[in-house]
Amino acid sequence: MASSAPRLEIDRIIDDRRTRIIVCCGSGGVGKTTTAAAIGLRAAERGRQVCVLTVDPARRLAQSLGLSSLDNTPRLIEDISGEAGGSLHAMMLDMKRTFDEIVEAHADPARAAQILANPFYQSLSSSFAGTQEYMAMEKLGQLRRSDEWDLIVVDTPPSRSALDFLDAPERLGRFLDGRLIRLLTSPVKAGRPITKVLNAGFSVMTGALTRVLGGQLLRDAQTFVTAFDTMFGGFRERADATYKLLQAPGTAFLVVAAPEPDALREAAYFVERLGEERMPLAGLILNRVHPVPPVRLSAARALAAAETLEPDGSPVAVAALRLHAERMTLSDREQRVAAAFTSAHPAVPVAEIPAFPADVHDLEGLRRLAQSALS
Ligand SMILES: Nc1ncnc2c1ncn2[C@@H]1O[C@H](COP(=O)(O)OP(=O)(O)OP(=O)(O)O)[C@@H](O)[C@H]1O
Ligand SMILES: [Mg+2]
Q1: Considering only CA atoms, which of 311, 290, 309 is closest in space to residue 301?
Q2: pTM (2 decimals)?
Q3: Which among 35, 175, 211, 255 is placed 20 to 30 Å from 281, CA to CA?
Q4: Is 359's C-beta closer than 6 angstroms to any atom of ligand 1?
Q5: Which residues neighbour 205 within 8 Å (Cβ) at sequence distance 6 or greater?
Q6: In ligand 1, which atom is closest to the CA atom of 27?
Q7: 10-residue block means of pLDDT along the chain (375 residues)?
């Protein structure tokens, strides 16, 4: 499949010591977490000191990686082959804990406690659209700065859109710098109640907001933003630094997609967007590809043969022909979809991972999955 595309050589990427970050991105459910874990394991068994940062792994995968609790720190995985001198750590992102840690690191204890207890902060840190994406990037920055690993493999959140994590720092920054927030903070800074300083238009707006959000929430937001004010600069700076890290030549983006029109449309968009952002794309991983049946009998001919046989032929032979026709149809469709991607993006290297009959949730499964992307 996608035979005209250059081959994506994953081993070349993980064996190159200059590769320091691999980001697995793509739309929801395509296999980002599984691929990130599989690549991390392979890199560790080929001698790299690896940390895999996962976001929301399926429970059984988390268990097999020894990630039974969400403690937001990398854990050493014992059961890997260390013959090549590598090691594997894995962690599961806890976005709220990551946000709390930033607050604790950047505010004195009293102020940190005040921020952490603030209901507005609590809802921002656990449910603001984009917080998870932002915190994944924040955590990546932290892991990279600690310099304990020579390769960090990053899984990205199950976003509505695969682009959310690129936009998240900007969105959070815009939110924190935004007009509403400034409006909310200025009266508090001036030491006057909010209603006194607002002109009529703003009063109407605040009135409406109060109705929607509730007066207490508005007051919480004011207190929060005032307390948080000193940290805005830090957030921005780190977001910018992480963005530059993603653009650096030591980073390799792998776009993961299923061989289906929607996933590949999103992958194509992502490839273009990475180009615009000057982020280094290493290639496309087509995951869950159905193998081309070994017998090259077309679906139409298999169906015709099944119909001819049907009246008095062997039911087993009829069922086998129908099954073959289904597989041919599926595999033909996947090949067409992949070929369309490649003709639009002929320079993007592609690797394929077959669809396994069952979920991949243990180290052996991850090993096989990584191995299959190379054959
Ligand atoms: N090649 C494969 N063959 C069989 N099962 C697979 C394959 N790749 C992934 N899976 C299974 O598909 C499910 C989804 O995979 P995964 O959790 O890695 O996707 P994801 O892109 O991280 O999803 P989300 O966007 O929700 O985070 C998992 O149960 C995983 O075991
Ligand atoms: Mg995932």
Answers
A1: 309
A2: 0.85
A3: 175
A4: yes
A5: 183
A6: 25
A7: 80 97 91 94 97 84 74 87 93 88 86 86 74 82 92 83 64 61 51 42 53 66 69 70 89 96 91 91 96 89 92 89 94 95 96 93 92 83
